[in-house]
Amino acid sequence: MTSRIIPAPGPARTLAFAQLTNSVGDGAFYVTSALFFTRVVGLSPAQIGLGLTLGWAVGFLAGVPLGHAADRLGARRVAIGLAVATAVAISAFLFVRTFPLFIAAAIVYAVCQCGLTAARQALLAGSVDPATRTEVRAHLQSTLNAGLAVGAALGGLALQLDTTAAYLAVFAIDALAFLGCALILRGAPAIAGVPAVKGEPRLAVLRDRPYAVVTLLNTVLQLHIPLINLAIPLWIVTRTAAPTWMVSTLLVINTTSVVLFQVRLARRVTSLPSAARSIRHGGTILLASCLAFALTAAGGPPWIACAILLAAAALQALGEMLHSAGAYAVSFDLAPADKHGQYQGFFGSGFAVARMVGPLLLTTMILTWGLLGWLILGALFLGAALAMGPAVRWAARTRPATTEAPVLVGAR
Predict the structure, then answer these.
(1) In 3D, which of 132, 187, 130 has the Cα closest to residue 405?
(2) Taking the domain 2-197+205-397, which CATH number applies?
(3) Using alpha carbons only, what angle is made at residue 287 by residues 278 and 355, rounded to the nearest 5 degrees?
(4) Which of 12, 222, 295, 395 gives 136 a disulfide partner, CB atoms 3.0 to 4.6 angstroms apart?
């Protein structure tokens, strides 16, 4: 089990422990945030939705500049600073009691999260051998899911207690988790910043059309994130005969599958062609999962709905992992060696977009349109996955032939 979650000793293990630490806090945040903001902060659901949407919108815009800062100033330094800033933003939620201040805190939180993701990806690219990046990134995804599961359990305890003190304690734990992440990252290799080249565009990724197309296609595929977190639970409760406890069962299946199998699937991705193939297979399986989920509303006894839901969840998890394994390789292999921060910031912006538009888009498609919505969503997954191969080949043809040689300036 450990070998599937924690990588071998060295920079990769340091990054994994940092990921594990803050993901525990994230898991607790995700489970309790809605009730915290309504019961403790005193906001309406509409205000929460608007505030978080604005926050992720600004985070989306900030990802590339902060990633560029990681390239110029050094990825470890920027990652540590943004982890501390995230802890400060979460701490601010403990004292915020008005809507304008909530929006301000949400913006700072989302900006720091998007920037931290870009900086950590740049740190991974600079401290890990290119041949093992995809596998190490899979390890980080496994530790992320393991930490989320632990954090969700802590959040569940707070939900059970349902007191202001319990919610405040969870948010304090989340802030401390990001401070712990910053402390652990101090042990990662320090990679020297790359000075700007005269005459070169400051944010070159914004002019890289092939990479932009690859990122757009990946953003479509990332709709599986709000699908499992929001749309499927609502579908189960409102459209199927399955008991409500199937919601948590499917989330457990998804999380456990990633912990157990993400690294194994990522090891099969060794090149851009194999990455595109993995994404293509993932999109095809995501289409199959959409068709299976649609069948759960056909009627019949609850046990039939449960059986189909279990099969659909297994397909969804497999499709997600195949897509992720290919996306890890694509995002790194198509990025210039001296611009990983801004390129990872741009590629990772798809996550922020999925969090912004996914809830409204998916609830409209699936809960309002039913079978037609599932068919459209599945077609989107398949179309994006099939288009990824030509897009990756186009991007690969435009890359200059370079040999990566990250400059390490020591580690503490």
Answers:
(1) 130
(2) 1.20.1250.20
(3) 85
(4) 12
